[in-house]
Write a structure and sequence with these properties.
The complex is a heterodimer. Chain A is of the alpha/beta class. Chain A contains 15 helices and 13 strands. Chain A is globular, with a radius of gyration of 19 Å. By secondary structure, chain B is mainly α. In chain B, the strands form two sheets. In chain B, strands 1-2 form a two-stranded antiparallel sheet. Classes of the chains: A alpha/beta, B mainly alpha. Chains A and B meet through helix 1, helix 2, helix 3, helix 7 and helix 10 of A and helix 10 of B.
Chain lengths: 366, 335
């Protein structure tokens, strides 16, 4: 992680062990009303809301310091994962078109963060496709990156090898000689939480993030039965170590999924998003939904802009996805008139991603 | 899943365990602990798992390494009795269950001052930790939200794996009749998937049954094998155990992931499925071969699981599962 994006000042070096140990107690809010209160739910809808927004209600966020921020997002069409060379070419061209600073990539350590949720050979729509990950790695190697890593701290299954094996990614990593880091069990450093959407004053992060010069979020284009959509920002949940936050990152669910997404992205500040929408998922995502062959790759350096574009492509209004609406002007651009769409147009490429059939989904779509 | 070609094999099924034990021993940190990953910092769970494996393999005959881990754990036990997952942290303390297991085992099989007091304080802390319950109607999630087990993190909901770990620990120190254990067993049975096995804690979400996973299924089966049958409902065998074993028998042949293989195989062995255990020696050997080809992956966490699975009967005894399990008709399962 370079200085521009480092979540310092509270690094391991500056954070004494005793402070670190005490810090988590405060960070987890243990012994506070945040945990004890607000759990008496009257119906299933309330249960959904508490999962989405936690048990503390909506937070007071910092002001939007960049209300006029603009961004560029590229939409491209790719029908399948079958042609490795075409995938690499599409992604490479896209990054160049978006203005990737090749001098900055040369010799750099690139951390690819895919969306690996659960091991299942029968449902490849759950995880970022292994050949998509390979293509992105190859693109960065073509740009003379010094090192390309794949790293994930998957939410449910503690056995990373099982997830890699069943998703087909292990074979790809072995063939291509790409290192994989299990972020759930990585060493830890502590970073100040600058957004404060949750009441966690610090976030515990995996040490491997500090090794990376360039963090790339590689999500699957999916609906999500709590958050509406899971794209490049929600994908960053996976950097949070399960060893500290539990499986599936229980502390963050209690703090509120939406708020946690903001805090994680504000702290980690990933550099780039490339969304695997070749085959996405709709319905009961992020695990039990149906394959949605959308044939799209969407990419950009501004993660909120990429996610807002994807939401529009999925026919979901990003303004109705709380964390996207709040990210606008704080972490990036989500307003349609401030996103310059390159490549395909939203109008020509959008396709309806069905949401799970439950009244709570009215939040996201009438 | 195919075996590597014979010419590429560097070990036999008999000698991979020696290789794995040596690699595990050489990654010991400061004479008292192990990390999850090569070169990383020490962690409680990986240290206890390494001790279990080495003891099961007979590589710690006088229990010296186990005692050293046990003593190391006491150095960062908090005043409230909890033990954090890593020594530099205060929380989370789900690893307290692992510390109790290690202390209990060390007290039993090693020489040294009794560890009664650390155990007492840790048990006291563990009994005070309760997974949060959620009242009201639950039309979204399928399991019973009002049953109390153990969470990964204090102040959050209970999940299968930490609940199983906590019950193991309490059972290991002779508290299997505690009310918390009784309720935890109800929770574990409630979280069983209708089609067989367990995932991590949910059964259905938005009406859809979730997928079972072999690791948590194996861990849970190990625990239930150590529970006296009269403490479980009469239909447990037919409704829960047998479908879970069937799931493991179909899912395990398709994986060589070390941790998943370990817990899946221990689950089968605990329930007398020894035909699968025999087959498993080649699976474990293939998994070890994979680690040999990728030395960076031959870390304490993976190695310990493979070794523990290879010596499954002894591992179960060390966990306190087999010796306390009386013969029972509910363990007689059809092939």
């Amino acid at each position: 992680m370079n200085s521009e994006t480092s979540p310092t000042p509270e690094t391991p070096e500056s954070c004494p062990v005793s402070t670190s140990r005490r810090g988590f107690l405060a960070a987890a809010g243990l012994g506070t009303a945040a945990i004890a209160g607000g759990l008496a739910l009257s119906n299933g809808g309330a249960a959904v809301l508490s999962r989405v927004f936690g048990h503390r209600g909506l937070p007071q966020l910092p002001p939007r310091t960049q209300p006029n921020i603009t961004a560029e997002v590229l939409i491209t069409r790719v029908a399948s994962y079958d042609d490795d060379a075409r995938l690499v070419d599409t992604i490479s061209r896209g990054l160049v078109e978006l203005g990737l600073d090749l001098d900055r990539v040369r010799g750099a350590t690139i951390l690819l963060k895919p969306n690996l949720v659960e091991p299942s050979t029968a449902a490849p729509q759950i995880n970022t496709h292994p050949r998509f990950i390979r293509a992105v790695a190859e693109a960065f190697r073509k740009f003379d990156a010094g090192e390309v890593l794949v790293a994930e701290g998957q939410g449910h299954c503690r056995d990373t090898d099982y997830v890699l094996e069943q998703s087909g990614l292990k074979a790809i990593l072995d063939e291509d000689g790409i290192e994989f880091i299990d972020l759930n069990h990585d060493d830890i450093f502590v970073a100040r939480n600058p957004m404060g959407a949750t009441n966690l004053p610090e976030l515990f992060l995996p040490a491997t993030l500090k090794r990376a010069d360039f963090i790339v979020s590689l999500p699957k284009m999916k609906t999500h039965h709590w958050a509406g959509v899971t794209l490049s920002m929600k994908n960053m949940f996976g950097v949070m170590p399960g060893l500290c936050y539990g499986w599936p990152k229980n502390v963050l669910h209690y703090q509120g999924i939406m708020q946690s997404i903001l805090d994680i992205n504000a702290t980690v500040r990933p550099h780039l998003a490339i969304v695997d929408g070749i085959v996405g998922m709709d319905g009961d995502g992020p695990i039990m939904g149906n394959p949605k062959p959308a044939g799209l790759i969407t990419m950009g350096f501004d993660l909120p802009a990429v996610d807002a574009t994807c939401a529009r492509l999925m026919e979901i209004d990003p303004n109705r996805v709380w964390y996207l609406a709040q990210a606008d002007g704080r972490l990036g651009a989500t307003a349609e008139n401030r996103i310059h769409q390159r490549g395909e147009t939203i109008a020509d490429s959008k396709q309806r991603f069905e949401l799970v059939d439950h009244p709570s989904m009215k939040v996201f779509r009438d | 899943m195919s075996s590597p070609p014979p010419q590429e094999r560097q070990t036999t099924e008999d000698d991979w365990t020696a290789w794995a034990c040596e690699r595990l021993l050489e990654q010991r940190i400061q004479g008292h602990s192990w990390s999850y990953r090569r070169g990383a910092g020490p962690a409680v769970e990986s240290s206890v798992m390494a001790c279990l494996a080495l003891n099961a393999a007979g590589r710690d005959p006088d229990g010296r390494m186990l005692r050293e881990v046990a003593d190391w754990l006491t150095t960062f036990q908090e005043a409230d009795g909890s033990v954090a997952a890593r020594p530099e942290l205060l929380r989370p303390a789900w690893a307290t269950s692992w510390a109790i297991l290690a202390w209990s085992l060390a007290d039993e099989i090693t020489e040294g001052p009794p560890l009664t007091e650390p155990i007492r304080r840790a048990v006291s802390w563990l009994l005070n930790v309760r997974g949060t319950t959620l009242g009201g109607q639950q039309d979204v999630v399928g399991h019973d939200f009002n049953l109390v087990g153990w969470p990964w993190i204090e102040g959050t909901h209970s999940w299968v794996e930490p609940t199983v770990m906590a019950v193991w620990a309490l059972k290991r120190v002779g508290m299997e009749n505690h009310d918390r254990v009784a309720e935890a067993l109800k929770l574990i049975l409630d979280r069983a998937l209708p089609s067989g096995g367990w995932n991590y804690g949910n059964t259905k979400v938005f009406g859809t049954e979730l997928r079972p996973q072999p690791g948590p299924t194996g861990q849970t089966l190990v625990l239930l094998a150590g529970i006296a049958p009269e403490r479980l409902p009469g239909d447990t065998s037919a409704k829960i155990i047998l479908p879970a074993l069937t799931y493991l028998r179909t899912s395990l042949p398709k994986t060589r992931a070390a941790c998943t293989l370990c817990w899946g195989l221990l689950g089968l062995v605990a329930w007398g499925q020894t035909d699968q255990a025999t087959l498993s020696t080649s699976w474990l050997s293939e998994s070890a071969e994979d680690l040999r080809r990728r030395p960076a992956s031959a870390d304490p966490w993976r190695l310990a699981h493979l070794i523990a699975a290879q010596f499954a009967q002894t591992t179960l005894e060390l966990l306190g599962i087999v010796p306390t399990m009386p013969p029972s008709p509910h363990r007689e399962l059809p092939r």
